[in-house]
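Researcher: We're teaching a course module on how sequence relates to structure. For the next exercise, students receive a sequence and then see the predicted structure as tokens, so they can try to spot secondary structure elements on their own. Here is the exercise chain.
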Amino acid sequence: MKKLITLAVVALVGIAGAFAFDLGGIQGTWTDSRWDADWTFRADGHIILTYHSDGEQVFDFNDSNIQNFKPVAGLSGAGFEFDCKATGRHYKFVKGLSADTSLDMTITPNWDQEEYSKKITFKK
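Model: And here is the predicted structure for the students to work with:
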């Protein structure tokens, strides 16, 4: 049992290390079909929000507008979270420990504690 827990912790730390503000090798696009949105995580650390339907850029999250960026890890998976004053929201993205390529996304507006939670699907 101790070995299983140790392996799980090591896996979580490894995954959490992959999600740093310098996103490094984390590249790809995930789609939120409810809001016609694509979230693209680029190797240069930018997170680009675009409309899925026409590709128009909505917002570029980067080191000039992201605050409190930190990795998160737990029994359900690992990822990162951050605040953005420009949008007035807190964002959290978590990749589960399974082979599923989806991300769990949670957005909490600063003016309301009502969270928007959605499993976004890997596009490319």
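Model: If you want an answer key for the exercise: The radius of gyration is 15 Å. The longest strand covers residues 67-74.
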